[in-house]
Specification:
With about 280 residues, the chain is α+β, with helices and mostly antiparallel strands. It is built from seven helices and 13 strands. Helix 1 packs across helix 2 and helix 3 packs across helix 5. The longest helix is centred in the middle third of the chain and has 20 residues. About 5% of the residues have low confidence.
Length: about 280
Amino acid sequence: ANLLLELIAGRPDPFAGAQQVTESVRRLGLYNTFIAVPYDLEPDPRYLSTYATPANQQTELSTNPDSSMQTTVSDMGQLLALLFQCTAGEGYLLEASSGALTQAECRAIIDVMAHNDIDAFIEEGVPPGIPVAHKHGWVGETHGDAGIVQLEEHPYVFVVALHRPGWLLWEESTAIIKAMSALVYAHFADPLAYSAETLRRQPPAIPTIAPTPGLPMAVVNNTGGAGLTLRESPGGAEIVILPEGSLVFLSNEPPAQQGGLEWRKVQLLGNLSGWAVADFLQAQ
């Protein structure tokens, strides 16, 4: 993986490649996905060691994510959907790549992923003969799989990640993901697999972030996908980059002027605070 990051950077610097990957997925609107520190390396002071994202700023639920690299099932699902659209010569992925990616190359990517045969996870819940282009991954307490099931009548994307604090048993995760995959396959392959009553059920509400008492909220906006730098003081040292769509709280401290710009002090969940350019903060 680190050699691939060096190829992306065009020089023997996997950190530069990681930065390019992060910037690329941001341009696709995937603000919860980043690589800050490549695999098994120590942070490099020339680069950020982590990023604040809308997902990792939530406190209702934590899966103990690695501060060096993160993603979400939603981001991976959107990325695979964009990749599949690209194979048909459609979608935003081709537009965002500005000619650097072709329809044939998208097809080749999916073909390579279809050779990932582990006889577990999504594959195990799909009948033999149905191609599954997927990328699996696991650590001690989190197991996941992200794939495109190439069902001829109705291809679909399915992404799942299971987490158990401390340790997740392989025999449990494979059985659960297999069962989930089989249900999803039945949903698309057999229109009678679910009753009308089941299909009408609404999923449980996702908890929302409550504002800190007395502090209004704002969202990072109009950065063109580059994100907004949070600094220790107006124009000062960089703390983190806040991705487009990040939620922040506006401090009661008066705005400051520096470098011809207006700065606002903001607070993130987890008590991280700093200064950011006010033009890129949209009050909620």
